[in-house]
Input
Amino acid sequence: MTYSRIVGTGRYLPERVMTNFDLEKIVDTTDEWIRTRTGVERRHVCAEDQTTSDMCIEAAKIAIEDAGVDVSDIDLIITGTTTPDLIFPNISTLIQHQLGIPVCPAFSLEAACTGFIYALTTADKFIKAGETKCALVIGAECITKLVDWSDRNTCVLFGDGAGAVILKSSEEQGIISCHLGADGQYKDLLYYPVGASKNLAVAGTDAAAIMMSGNEVFKVAVKTLGRIAAETLEKAGVTKEELDWLVPHQANIRIIQAMAKRLNMPMEKVILTVQDHGNTSAASVPMALDVGIRDGRIKPGHLVLMEAFGGGFTWGSVLMRL
Ligand code: UT7
Output
């Protein structure tokens, strides 16, 4: 039986850090409101001339080194992102070229904050089908470039970054099961109103801003994430007690606490980065995974549940052994 296993991780965060106190100077908000309602204390913001692929390349270099593979070993690149550099060519081809990765399938996919979970699930299928031996899988976002910095409802939430993993085929079990879902009936609760074939002319104007009905998103997120976590464990025949770590999407500490409660997991078993990174959309799960592995909390053999929820709505979970 062929499995896929994560054998290396990396992350990149832009240099510039914006604290809640910096935001107090821009919009009518307070550090206290942001911390208590979201858990965010600071976030990294990319430079004006910095692109998503720039961040992906830095994260990928670290993951490649960590995995001890050569760029010539990589035979698949998938990047989950909502903020690619260009509409085309796709961001994975830009990364491929910059890193000198040989000819291989390279594509991006967009599933908002669930982008990395979708990308990892897809790469797992390529490996299990025998098509791929070594995949570079990335979740990355320059989401602050979409933010309306005069809208306190959204500008305090987001941050930029990139997380990368190397996923290799293995005789040993790594990824145990993946579960993806989406329900387009909720498309109007969280969206960005500009695309290649709609409203392109308003890009760069005040009309181009992230639209979010935060409260409603919150409720569906908590309900859906709780349900998929239970389904994931049940399908894999794993009990809550067996889980070593929860690596959740970092949208809001209150959503994460609700999830931990449902799983009977103390917060000590949850990797939290929301305070330092904010909501980095598709980048949040791979960056949190990298944080947990590098600081020695997540160890080889540990059972890890990753999950995410985002615009669409889309959602997904991956249960794995490191
Ligand atoms: O990552 C993809 C999925 N995204 C999510 O999962 C996000 C889910 N939603 C959330 O995390 C929360 O709904 C938010 C953090 C976005 C908002 O928190 P909330 O507790 O749902 O607040 P609210 O939207 O109900 O607003 C409460 C009050 C409002 O004032 P009034 O109408 O009660 O007077 C807002 O105007 O807080 C006000 N408010 C703020 N006050 C200070 C909204 N934003 C701010 C702010 N500073 N930045």
Q: What stands out?
A: The two ends are 18 Å apart (CA to CA).
